[in-house]
């Protein structure tokens, strides 16, 4: 049974990557996976639930690739942020699965998942950024109360990113990048740095 589900996921991934969410249908996935259309529903409740699983796997793959290519010791905060945003924009723009983040037909399903506790815990990139920021703040000798306050601001930025798309706010990506940049610059500038 697990083999069938993996086949469905792989076939769906390939079709979603080629056609996007809207132009993909369950019958095409079932045909290419060599299963009956009814068998599909033994594994997934809907096209939306299948797409969510495919999206999460693709997002993890892309973000883990980014994490493995970041060398935190060789980059300033500005360079790190620039690399993260540049990589993200390039990968999302050219990936029909990840580009669906802004598609109102499916984006609410994606956003609900990533704002949930399970979504946050399973979001390797979010966990990586949270841990990295906490470590930087500890190295800069911030006390625990200040770190907790600053992490709440980071949580707000995460919340905004999970609830707003580029179609909701003009120049969203550019504005988010500025918000993150100046948040990090402000946080990481201590009296010794001035």
From TrEMBL:
<protein>
    <submittedName>
        <fullName>TetR/AcrR family transcriptional regulator</fullName>
    </submittedName>
</protein>
<feature type="domain" description="HTH tetR-type">
    <location>
        <begin position="2"/>
        <end position="62"/>
    </location>
</feature>
<dbReference type="InterPro" id="IPR009057">
    <property type="entry name" value="Homeodomain-like_sf"/>
</dbReference>
<dbReference type="InterPro" id="IPR050624">
    <property type="entry name" value="HTH-type_Tx_Regulator"/>
</dbReference>
<feature type="DNA-binding region" description="H-T-H motif">
    <location>
        <begin position="25"/>
        <end position="44"/>
    </location>
</feature>
<keyword id="KW-0238">DNA-binding</keyword>
<dbReference type="GO" id="GO:0003677">
    <property type="term" value="F:DNA binding"/>
</dbReference>
<dbReference type="InterPro" id="IPR001647">
    <property type="entry name" value="HTH_TetR"/>
</dbReference>
<dbReference type="Pfam" id="PF00440">
    <property type="entry name" value="TetR_N"/>
</dbReference>
């Amino acid at each position: 049974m697990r083999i069938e589900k993996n086949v469905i996921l792989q076939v769906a991934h390939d079709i979603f990557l080629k056609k996007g969410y809207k132009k993909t249908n369950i019958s095409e996935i079932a045909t290419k996976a060599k299963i009956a259309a009814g068998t599909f529903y033994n594994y997934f409740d809907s096209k939306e639930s299948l797409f969510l699983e495919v999206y999460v796997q693709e997002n993890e793959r892309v973000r883990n690739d980014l994490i493995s290519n970041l060398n935190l010791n060789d980059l300033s905060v500005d360079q790190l942020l620039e690399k993260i945003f540049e990589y993200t924009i390039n990968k999302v723009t050219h990936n029909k699965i990840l580009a669906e983040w802004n598609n109102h037909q499916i984006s609410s399903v994606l956003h609900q998942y990533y704002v949930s506790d399970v979504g946050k815990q399973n979001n390797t990139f979010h966990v990586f950024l949270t841990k990295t920021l906490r470590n930087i703040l500890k190295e800069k000798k911030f006390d625990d109360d200040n770190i907790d306050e600053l992490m709440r601001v980071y949580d707000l930025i995460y919340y905004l990113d999970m609830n707003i798309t580029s179609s909701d706010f003009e120049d969203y990506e550019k504005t988010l990048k500025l918000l993150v940049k100046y948040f990090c610059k402000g946080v990481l500038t201590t009296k010794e740095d001035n």
